[in-house]
Amino acid sequence: MEKAVEEAYRATEGGDGGPFGAVIVRDGEVVISCHNMVRRNTDPSAHAEVTAIREVNKATPYSGMCHHILLVLLLCQ
Prior knowledge:
By secondary structure, this protein is α+β, with helices and mostly antiparallel strands. It has a single domain (2-74), classed as Cytidine Deaminase, domain 2 (3-Layer(aba) Sandwich). Helices cover 36% and strands 26% of the residues. The chain has 3 helices and 3 strands. It has helices at 2-13, 38-41, 48-59, and strands at residues 20-26, 29-35, 69-74. It has a 3-stranded antiparallel β-sheet. The two termini are 16 Å apart.
């Protein structure tokens, strides 16, 4: 979750989007970490979790995502 917190801060500090971070984990290892990119990409679907899924799909075939865990965090300030 620490990486998700870092990503949430990156989203707000960079003006990319709301304070959301997401990580995808497999076998205890972080595969990808992302943050909300709605403002930066001017894409209302670029939420942290959607961005993370898009990024991991670039590196991992869809059929290989069965044992991944998606963690999403909202940073309340």
